[in-house]
Every structure is written in structure tokens, then in C-alpha cells.
Give the backbone structure.
Amino acid sequence: MATTDKATLKAAILKKKREVYEPVVPAQQFGFIHNNVDCIGCRACEIACKDKNGLPEGPRFRRVQYLEGGSYPEVFAFKLNMSCNHCAEPACLPTCPTGAIYKRADNGVVDIDSTLCIGCRKCEAACPYGAPQFNVELNIVQKCNMCIDELDAGRKPYCVSACMMRVLDIGPIDQIDAGTYETKAVGPNDDLVRQVKSMADPELTNPSIRFVPHSKGRVD
Amino acid sequence: MTKTLSLTSRLASLLTPTRRAFLQGAAATATTALVGGKAAPAHAFAYEPYPKDDELTTVVTSCAHNCGSRHMLVAHKKGDVIVRLSTDNGSYQGDAYGTDTEEKPQLRACLRGRSYRLRLYSPERLLYPMKRVGKRGEAKFKRVSWEQALSEIAERMVHLKTTYGPTALLDQSYAGASYGVLHKSDQIEGLLGRFLGMFGCRTNSWSVPSYQGTTSSSRWTYGTIEDGNEDDAFAHSKLIIMWGWNPAYTFHGGNTFYYMRMAKQRGCKFVLVDPQYTDSAAAYDAWWIPIRPNTDAAMMAGMASHIFATNRQDQEFINRFVQGMDPGTMPVWAQGKESFRDYIEGKSDGIPKTPEWAAEICGVPAENIIKLAEMYADTKPAALKASWAPGRAAFGEQYNRMAAALQSMTGNIGKLGGCAEGVGKGWHPEAVAYPYDENANIWYASIKSDRWAHIVLNYPNVKREEAGLWPRSDNLDGVVPNIRGIFWQGSDWFNQLTNINKEIEAIRKLDSYGEGESLLVCMDSTITPTGIWADYLLPIATHFERHDVALPWYKGHYYIHRPKVIEPMGESKTDIQVFTELAYRLGFGPAYNPKADRSYFDNPDAVDEAYLVDWWTQKVQLHQGVTSSWEEFKKRGVYKFILPRPHVAFQDQIEQGIPFQTPSGKIEILSTELAQVTDWTRTRYGYFIPAIPKWIEPWEGRGDPKAQEFPFQMITPHPRWRTHSIFNNIPWLRETFSQETTINASDAKRLGIQTGDTVEIWNTRGKVVTPVYVTERCMPGVVVLHEGAWMDLDENGVDRSGNPDFLTDDNPSPAGAFAYNTILVNLKKTELAHRPGWDQLASARSHVFRRDN
């Protein structure tokens, strides 16, 4: 029977991380913010991402999940929107046999050097959030790199700039957590959490993403 | 708490060269965190070679498909190829990167617009004129020259006009490429209408599929369809009742959805009255009141009853501005007749329209009707947004009329945060750069748009009221048109009007007249389900391939320049080029396009520029106080107006006492026009319409005997992954959403259906096949199937794409409302396969449409 003891699990996870990988600690970690409630689920971010990255049918770097519950007529619904979480301790990175996956030291973006990727798909299996996407046509794995070229040019990623409701944003994760970061994604009465329902435990990789949760999406 | 310098402003500061040079000095490490604190250019992009945006040419343009607005698309191109699209980032009008304020928000494009490259470069693009070689509908075409196509079309037009008279050609232009100021397709006074009218052979289609019930109501009640607030006004409401309204799907022009988020943050409460718990309800945290389809007017009557009974109405407003609300506001000529309050209180029919009475009809508990009535009457200002969808039904006009009664009895008209919509057209743009004169709307017959097949099939034994003929004052009055041809310009109406199987029969009737005795022409950028049935397919340049200016027709206050971003693909021409050249062949070329000569067909650039310059200088600068030059506008690509106050419909009428544009000058709950009618058959409506709003039992409602055999009520809302049928062929969009039937979980359980199963849905008119989505978010007894799937018939006449218009009825409401949401159906699990798109057809589209012989 599987263990349900969280402390035991946590210790095991820590041990594994120590054994295989010493993560890069960036000068400043960038992360995403998504408002689960105010998001209308239009998926303009997804399409902007497909266009930006020239993707065929199949790989979806950004995925808006639709969650709903309750019984008629007392129902609820909210959205959970994720691409790559550019984790502080990325699970994908140590699984890569060629070293194609790397974490940038400046802003913590996790990226794949496509010239080194052999398409073994180990990272795809390792990621608890489904970020790495296999591209059948190119026979490699690709994923969100937070539009690093746009960041370098001083602009926000395509998904963030596409958001019609202004509920998706990026920022330095320490400032987001400190509540000092100015963003339209967070309303005046909203608080932020690290985990919501239908999402793997953030203890696994320390993902760089925060959410405004729906009352029915709270984990605790 | 002190906010640190925001990321946006830091990004913006990096974009300013002087600032950047400064930053490379002392402060660099402190402020350039985003680029990692190093001055060296980053070399981290993994997908080399990969053109970055700044290595490409940037051209501002817009989307062209109809959410009621035109959001910005920014093309990043290399040579003549668009590599990717972005959207407004606040900088293009000359402001700092990231500028996005309440008075000047960014015009961010939706998922449909963002997918445009795939439409532009789709395998379904029409690249040269084609002529049918198989049977109509068989999808066999061959390539022909423009010369051949246009000569043959012109010859046939003359033959049909000479032989069958001035009503032989039916104008079915619609909004497929809507609203540039110069190039567009449009049902009302559009380019095709002018062309056929000047040719002297045109049957017009007057009822608008989207909102004719609503339009009729707005015109009777307010005398105009400009009864809308601008999008930013929604941010000022304390209560927004979304009645059948789902801006999370339709977007609804400008930044409506975003301003509603602001309203929520400022404490506005939301209510949704709808058979579905929509994403709008979820995002705005609305109180959901599920209601049976087509019973909205009854629920509203119940609300009105409670408001009167508890004396919550704004009597002062009623007395000053409203005609016919109660006995005291009846005009002299109608003294003693039934007022709205008389009707509600049951004075003449003996039935008080109490909340309990309404509850029986609409399935909403009386206490909820009372609660909503009190919320609406007691909250100021409150916006009852009576959307178009519930009006697309049998007697849909009564729903909109009833909503107007509630809006005016609570005094929420002409006030910021209130709402009089209705049609909801807001800011008035200068919309016309193309030639517009006395020839704009010449017609010899004008029919209810969804009656064409009925007319063709039953000609000449058709009564004028069945056709919905618009009255004339000459000898053509009441003459039913002898339809022998159809022009579809930017129109997929064959796929989009009601009762498609009846339309197919009508085409077969035209076939029976013999080759050469009818004509079907389809003008579009891609092949369409309608084009399959045409004799000629004419390739039309998209808005990326022609010079124009985009404007919102519905909400939003701005213009976006649309330069020719790339050269027209293949042999594409613009609509005006085609009509001009045809007009030359038919003898009225110079009159049709006064600024052009015949070389326009080969090079339209100088003439198009001249029309646009005239529009800017003679209209925009002259009428709208814009000082910016045409050249400046072209350089920027966008002009956003800053309005002195949020535009609210009828504010001047209420604040300054200016009369409404109705016969009485008041808000007409008692319609002067309707009250004067004595012979309904001689009106365009054809059948009786009450002069005050009333609940009328619809056909195919729950009380219809047909409900025994067909127990489900179907509604067919607009999808968000298509604009009607446009974009149905886009792989990215089909990956995000699928054409599926939504059904309530308890109904599904009874039928043994689970999410992911395939179902067939049928009634006496047709049968369709789709996957099914089972949810608690849909009212029991209701099924939902979005309109616009590209029809795909199998050998037994079953539509495998799931187009609900095989099930809809072509019988319109008296005021012209299409009955898109008045359908009884049955459904069951099926072994038949759903075919989501033509890519899964037996014959590949490339073989069907690109043959050269």
C-alpha cells in the first residue's frame, strides 16, 4: 500500500534531489501568476503561444484546464492555466541524458537546447505538470521558454501579452510572494497560493507559479 | 506597502534608447534584472534559426471577423510572408510599451484573430477562380481564368434578368469579411447590394440572422438600434444581469469582458439568466438562474408584476419618458386601450402575470423571480443586458420588448451604469469610405432572409406574408420574387440559415429548370460549405491583402489602419475589384466605382488610397474632431479616441429632454407603429404583433404536442472557437475546443450516455452526429449545440459535422427573428462516426479543389 505519510515522502524527495542534481540558483527567478477565477478560459494565450512558437497540431506549450463541480443548479467552475513552471528544482532537468535541458542563471528560465535533444521523452515523463511536449514532426521535445527572446527584448511573453482579461502575468517570484509586485492579474481582494486542486504537489519541484484560487479550488 | 518599480515600467524603460544608454551606466545591474544584468545580447534561444520579432518587419493591422469589434493584430513578416502575429502592446499610438489604462485600453485580439495565419495560409484558401464541373453540391470544380468566369457570370446575369425579371437575383451578402470602411461584405447597403441594384436585378434579404427580433424591438421602443453604451460604461454598474449573454464566448466588442472584471472588483454583483452555467457566470461569480429556452418574456413579465405590486417602479421616470407603461402614460389616441400595466395585472385577459404564473412557464421558482425583481429595482444603477440570443427564437422580439419595459420602469436608461440594450450599438464611427449614394440600396423585392428556400420551392404559390415581403409603393408591391440565382459574398448562408435540408431541396428545384437557367456565385477567401453548392467560386483577397481601415461597429472607439500587409495570394482580387470589373462588362462601371477606370482590376492601390484619404479628411477629421493627419495615422496604425465621458445611450434624452427618435418622442412600450396597423399581411411582418410586450407561447415549446416525440429543447449559441462558421477549418482552434453536444448529467444518466460518447440528434427536419459533453452546468431537458460547423453529409443525408441548422426551422418570428433557439429534438447514443472537419472526408480537399482540368 502506498504511503500517505507526507513527511516520509518529503524526506524521500529531498534525498533523491540531493543525489542527482544541484539546481542552479538564478539571480532572480521569474514566474507566472494566473487568476483562476477571473480567467474566462478563452485560450487566446494558447493560440498566441502556438503562433509564436510555430507549432503544429499536437504540442501545446500552454494548456488551460477547465475544472467544474457541484450539482445542478449549485455548480461552480474555474480555470487552471499552466505552461512550463520554470521550477526552482526542475524534475525534467536531471532526467535529460544529453544535457539539453538547462536552467538560466539570470532569470531561472528552464529551456531545452533543441540541437541537443534526441527525443527520448524522459523529461516528459518526469514533469509532474505536463510541460514538455513531444513534437512528432521534429522528433524532439519542446516546451515553453517564457519567450526568452521577448524577455531579452524587454517585452513580456506572448501568452501574457495576449491575455484579454489581464489575468495572466509574469514577474520576479520573490516580489510576487512578498506582495510588492504590481500586476493586474491580482485583484484588490485576492490572495495568492502555490497550489490549487488538480495540480501536483509543489513540494516536488518548487514550481515558479502562483494562483489566485477559486474558493472550491483551494487545497487547504 | 510600497510597491517596487513594476516589471512593465522596467520593461518600458528598457525600450527607450536614451534611457537604455543611461542604464548601461551606473544603474545597469540594479534595474535590468529581466535581461540578467548583463549588457551582452542574450544568445539563449533554443530554436535557431528562428527569426525574433525585432528581426522582422512589424506591420499594424487588425482582425476582420465579427465579434462586433476589430481588435489589433500586429504582423511580423519576412519579405511577403507573415511569420507570426502579436497584438496591441500599448505602444503603437505613441505611448510607452505596456500602456493599458481604463480610458485607453489595449485592443487585444482573441483566440480567433490570433490564429489568423492558419486561415491566411490554409489549404482551403481559394487561389484562382473556379467553375463547377460536377453536380451542385458534389464539390467538383476546375480552374478557369478571371476572364472566363466573369464573362460567363455577366452573360448569365443578363439572361436571367431579361427572362425572369428584376427579382431574379437574390442578394445574400453577409458579414464574412465585415467592416473595413472600404472593403467589406455586408447585408445592409453593402457592395453587393449596390452592384445588383445598379444592375437592375436584386431581391434583398432584410431580416438579420443575428438579431432581427432585437432590432425590431429596439426600433419600435427607442426608434434606433444605437441603444448601446460603450464598453467602459459597464465598469460603473452595481448590478449586471447577463440575460442569455456570454461575453466570455462572444467577447462582444472592445474590452467589454475586461471592464466587467473591473466592475466586479468595484463590488458589482452579477446574475446570469441562461439554460447554461457559462464561463461568464464562472468568471464574474454570478448567481445562476437556469431558465427554459424561449420563456424569457414570461419571467420578465413576472418580474414586472412584482415591481408594480410592491410599487418599486420609478414612476417619475415613467411619467416623463415612457409611453404606454400604465394607464396614465397612454397617449390620447389610445385612451382606454390596454397599457402594459393593464396586461401585467391581467385587466383584459383575466390572467395576472404574477411570479407564480411565470414560474410555471419558465421553470424558475417564484421566489427567485421575486428576488431578482427586487435586486434589479432596488440597485442603482443596474444594467439589465438583454442579449440577442434569447431573441433568436419564436416571438423573440417579445423578450427584447419586455426587457425594455423592465429597463425603463426601473429608470435605468440614459444613466451611467444602467443599460438600455437591446441591439447595443454604441459609439458612432464614420463607417463608409466606399462609394455611397442613391444607388446604395436599390431593390425590387425584399424578403425575410430565411424564407428564400420556401419561396423557391413554392413559387409562385407563396403568400406575401409567408415571404415577409417589405412593402413598396409601386406595382412591385406584394410581388413574390422569382428567384433564379444567388450571390453569396462573404457569406456562408447556405450553411448558416435555418433548415438546411429545405435549402438543398430548393437548389434541386433550381437545377430542375435546366442548365443555364439559374446561377450561384460564391465570393470568399476560402472554400466554404456554401461554396460547394456554387457554380463559380471567386477568390477574394483577405484583409491582409488589401488596403483599408478597420473600425468597431458595435463597441469600442478607435480606428485601425489595415495596409496591404502582403500581396494578394494567388489570383485573389478584392470584392470591389470584382464588382467594378463586372459593372464595366454590364455597362455601369464608371458609375459603380467613380474614382476608378478599368485598370482597377489590375491595380487598385491608388484608387483605394484616394477613397481612404477622402474618408479621413472629409469625415473623420471634419465630423469627429480628429486633427491627426492621414499620414500620421498610417504611420501609427491606430487611433484611439478618448471620449469626454463614457458613452451612454440616451443620456441626452434623459438629462436634456431631447425627444427619442420614436413617433411620440418617448420610449414606446406602447408602439405607435404597431398600434396603427390594420392589415398585417401588408406589413413586412405578415402576422399580428401586439403593440405592447406580451408573453406568447412559442411553437416547439414544452407545451407543443411534438414534445412527446422530441422531448429536448435545443439551443444553438455562438461558439468561441469560430466566428459563426469562419475558422472552423483551423487546426489550432479545433485542438482547443470541439463541436460537441452539451447535456445535463441526469438526462445523460437516464439515456445511458457518458462524456465522450457519440450521439445522433434528430427531429423531422434532419439528423446530426456529434460527441457529447455531460455536465451539471446545463439545465435538464435542454441540449446545447453550437452553430457554424461545416456541414458534411453522408450518403443517407445525415450531417456528420454536427451542424444544428439541419434541425432548425425556417419559419421566422413575425418581427423577423430567426428561430435558431426554438427547436425540439430527440437524441440517443449512436454507432455513426462524427466527422469534425473536411480533413477526415473520404476525398481530400486538395484533390477536390485544386484540380486543373
Observations:
- Strands of chain A lie at 30-35, 63-71, 74-82, 101-103, 110-112, 133-135, 140-142, 168-172, 209-212.
- The mean pLDDT of chain A is 93.
